Amino acid sequence: MGWLRKIVAYALAALSVGAIAWCVAAARPVTTTVPRPAPHSPSLLETYGFLEHAPPRTPPELTTEVTVADATDADLAAVPEGKIDERLRQMKITVVHRLTLDSTDQQAAILRSEGAFPDDIQGFTDRQLGAVKAEDTAVLAATTRLAPVLTTSNGRTTIRFTLTLLRQVEQDALPRLDFLPPTATGAVPERKITVISPQWIVFRAERVTPDREGAGRLEFTAYAGPAHLHLAHRTYGRPDATQQDLFSWTPVLSVFTAIALTVYLAKALGPAWWRRMSNRELAAGAGLCAVALTFALFMADMPYLGPVILFGALPVLALRHARRVVPGPPPWTSKDALLVTGVGVLVASGMLAWSFIHGQVPPATLAVGTATAALAAAGSAVAFGADLGIAVLVARLAAVSAGVAVGALALALWVRALMSGGYFPPDSVRLVLALCWSLIPIAGAAVATRSWSRTAIVVAVLGSLLLLGWPTEWLDTGSWSVQPDQRPPESPLPPVLGQPLNEVTRGVLGLLLLTFVLFVLRLRRLGADLAAVADPAVQATVLVCLMVLYLTPRTDADSSVIDLPLPSLAITSLVAWAAAAWLLLGPRPEIPEPASRLEHRELIRQALHRRLLHVSEQELYRLGRARLGAGEITMEDFEQQRLALDRALTKDPPHTETAFASSAGCSPWQNGLAAFVVSLLLSLPFALIYGWPSGVELTSWVFDSRFLVALPAFGFVYGYFYPRLRGTQPVTKALYLMSAALVTELSAYVPSLVDPDIGGWDKLQVLAIVVGQVALVCIGLGLYWEWRIMYVAGEPWARVRNVRSVRSLATPVVAVVIAAGTAAATSAAGNTVDRILKAGSSTSQSAP
């Protein structure tokens, strides 16, 4: 490459960077937006009313009167009976808007002739008069809106709009009223609002300056911004905090569980993992990031520390580790680079379109800067790659360089808008953070599978976008035309792990979920070899996964010993640890494992032959006494038959008895996956009792869905470590599994079962449901495993379990009886049982 071409290449690159810097320097904070047409079809009211009519001689006046009262039986007559909970409080909110105009105003004529009722009445009142929202409440019935009433007197026309809201709240709930400003152009900017609440008290008012305030009445004037009122019922009073004991089990369980998880996490990685320098550097870096992130979660004066660590430092650390661990270079092609560049250009085009629409950069400056940056970057790439001698490759390099320049310009303008504190594209923060966070699962999947995968990258990016809550506002085209000071505030999401559900909390929950998924992938990779069942690192990995699934955090528990809002952990996590360790750890007899399914078939046949000889010997002793006494056979015949059976039993190798305790020639991962699927199918009907996962979005829903796979995880342990479990037969091993799973499941309900305020019948029903579920899953899994062992060996199941024998049907009959009892108990379960079950299985609640 000649020196002249180098100078040209570097000069073009500098020109591209300069164009980007020029556009960023010319950018200004976006404080207002350019009005755009609303996404809905305008009604005649808007087309010929507020938007185009001449200003009236007297400005219009808008008053809003809100009455909050307890709902009566007559108010609730139209509400379905199943929605009303007598333990909760029902409230009725009546909103009356009065718009006063000159009688000659065109609005009155339009309302009389082209009334919006009932088709567009909701959109009209919300946009022109301002929406009234009742937050932190449950909806009992849809909002009803009456037809507008017009009255004229003394040259003034008053239009009255009335709507009614029926809501339901907890007895100790503190509902909130939000008064959102009108969003339509030309709407009345000033509103007189009166709140009448004879049975409720306004104890907090945000962005409100009262004009008049008294018992059960508040009058104020609202302008362009929203206003918020918090209410409390007159009969509600929170008791003073009681003195807590100096000793509390909450921090003890929390610290002990954290220690156990940390120890087993270190053991799960294994000594070989810790011997590698790159892994130790990763652990040290991740530990420092975890400490800094923990401090950032509880330090309000450093809001940017958490995002910088979670979406900046950790992705760089993960990618660096993956580059060092994964063998060989990534198998990317030029087509992959073009595809990624094309997607980036599409996103960047949307960001630049936003900058153009909202006037962040002058149109001429933006057009010239974008074109200059792209063309100069492409020219620089051509100059640098001219020595390659392949025109197609040089053209692709130029296209990628131009796309990178456009993306860099869009990102720089976005950062400029973000730093200026102005209005920036909807959901753009979540989009950028999700793309940054997706580098962590991409690197993690590459390390877990020891290869770079295009499928893993696509799944990681899509999963990261959904995890961070994107997109939510891009689908609402109306958000592009809303003025910044008129945007309604986002409703606060319920906290998780004691923290608000913001981007940082979502990212932390995503890291926990990613760690769990990577551990499962590690079990899959190590489970290809039968020696994994005796590997302490694999056993520790399974224990960590079980403990995570049985973690039950609470958001309302504070520690009286440690001055930190640690989550209270139910004892189920520790019990699951102890129960699984009891199943797996300890010495076990050596079991000859078949190397293939053909060898497994031979071992099963030998075992069936030995079982037949044992049964024949038992029959000889059972029938021999009667036949000897009756003279049907002589003593010499009896001894001859007994000796023949003894010789046959001695001839067969003794290890054939353990053929039903082997892995059947399958890998641990195959066995574990089959057992998990069967356990999940057997336990899914009980989700109708416990309830399906709940959550306002994907992050909290995934976090709440762990209880669905907790018991099937014990089934996974059954299949994965089947040769090491206690017992020598499938059903026997299943009974041991049932003991461990039952103790773990019941431990979540111990506080409720010892509560003296809960009746004995309710406790009995809870026991029946939990025992029935565990018994059905474990015994059903044992019977399935017995069938599977015979199926893999190519033998019929009837050779080990004869359906004509009452004794052989004892175990499945017990399972059916327990399941039937469970169904009967469930059908009779009341509110108390339902509350106990949901509190014990949900991740957002736990037994105290």
From TrEMBL:
Residues 1-21 form the signal peptide. The chain crosses the membrane at residues 246-270, 282-298, 304-322, 337-357, 363-386, 393-417, 429-448, 455-472, 504-523, 530-552, 564-585, 673-693, 705-722, 734-754, 766-785, 806-825. The keyword Kinase does not apply. Keywords: Membrane, Signal, Transmembrane, Transmembrane helix. It comes from the Bacteria. This is Uncharacterized protein.
